[in-house]
Design goal:
336 residues; mainly alpha; 3 strands; 2% strand; DUF1403; DUF1403 family protein
Length: 336
């Protein structure tokens, strides 16, 4: 049985904030114990799984509403992780480092390829206002990035269906986002993207957070529906699907909170040395590091030369406040 907190939580329709007295983004010990991994969590009842998911989203919600300066880098790092999961699901070999290279080392206007488009799809989730994500314009763009273009009529039908889901309960909304993707044969990556967008809109987040996208097999193992199965079997399948999705959502929310703690510490160290930097436009470089997953040393920032930018990055690495992410002697990439 999952350990229940003293404060009553409710997940069907609205999200409660974190339990009273806890600092923002703090994860209660009972929740850590309740969400060791998605597989063990789904062994419990749907109500207990929903309780854990609601509490995990409560901790994440408190973090998001602080609107930290490093939020851009945090969101893009989560998007990269989701893209790597998507690539793995598609049978591709690119890991996070390769996906980062695909996008950053491609000239503006050049084709980034199927793997690069997966990165662009998840970055779209974290860089566009959440209220715009499920409009026909952005739906059409993200479906193309995932390799599933739709005609105008079908795109309108999907947008209408998602709008109706957004007015329902949280559990039905998450499950419905996946179900809509399945009906159009879009696959689980698209279902995860739609569900994450719906959650962000419901909770009023300015930007969405890739949650289900970073969880491999978030919807559970694929199980073909048996011919002639009765309604009871269908209900059981839906309940199991809901538990897998909510368990994955809980696990992903805690993972996002943990990443925020790590990036928060790194950004504090960067901001502490920022006033001592003498390079021209170093303040703009610091802001870019806080806003993006990574920056290439050859990027043009406020007229800085390649040499000047490399020297600044080398200095930041020497100070231990920035990391070189590629491991290469050339075409180096830097980030928190």
């Amino acid at each position: 049985m999952i350990l229940r907190p003293k404060t009553s939580l409710h997940y069907h329709g609205t999200l409660l904030s974190t339990p009273a007295g806890l600092p923002a983004a703090t994860v209660p010990a009972w929740l850590r114990r309740a969400v060791p991994d998605a597989k063990s969590l789904v062994a419990h009842s749907l109500e207990d799984v929903a309780l854990a998911a609601g509490a995990a989203l409560g901790a994440l919600d408190a973090l998001i509403r602080r609107q930290e300066r490093w939020g851009g880098a945090w969101g893009q790092r989560l998007a990269l992780s989701a893209a790597a999961t998507t690539a793995k699901q598609a049978g591709r070999i690119e890991d996070e480092a390769a996906l980062r290279d695909t996008v950053l080392l491609t000239k503006t206007g050049d084709e980034v390829g199927p793997a690069g488009r997966m990165v662009l799809a998840w970055r779209r989730l974290v860089t566009r206002p959440s209220e715009d994500l499920l409009t026909r314009k952005h739906l059409g763009a993200v479906l193309e990035e995932f390799g599933h273009p739709l005609d105008d009529e079908a795109l309108g039908d999907l947008a209408d269906e998602l709008r109706k889901l957004g007015a329902g309960g949280m559990v039905d909304m998450v499950v419905g986002g996946f179900a809509a993707a399945e009906r159009y044969s879009f696959g689980r990556a698209t279902g995860a993207w739609l569900a994450d967008a719906l959650v962000a809109q419901r909770l009023g987040w300015p930007r969405a957070v890739p949650l289900l996208g970073g969880e491999f097999n978030a919807a559970g193992p694929a199980r073909p529906r048996r011919a002639g199965a009765g309604n009871a079997a269908g209900i059981e399948d839906e309940s199991t699907r809901a538990k897998y999705l909510l368990a994955a959502q809980a696990r992903a929310a805690l993972r996002a909170v943990d990443l925020s703690s790590e990036l928060g510490r790194r950004s504090e160290r960067l901001l502490a040395v920022a006033p001592k930097l003498r390079a021209r436009a170093s303040d703009l470089v610091v802001e870019r590091l806080l806003s993006d997953d990574a920056i290439v040393a050859s990027e043009k920032i406020a007229g800085m030369s390649d040499r000047g930018l490399r020297r600044l990055f080398d200095r930041l690495v020497e100070l231990g406040v920035v990391r070189e992410l590629s491991g290469r002697p050339a075409f180096r990439i830097y980030g928190l």
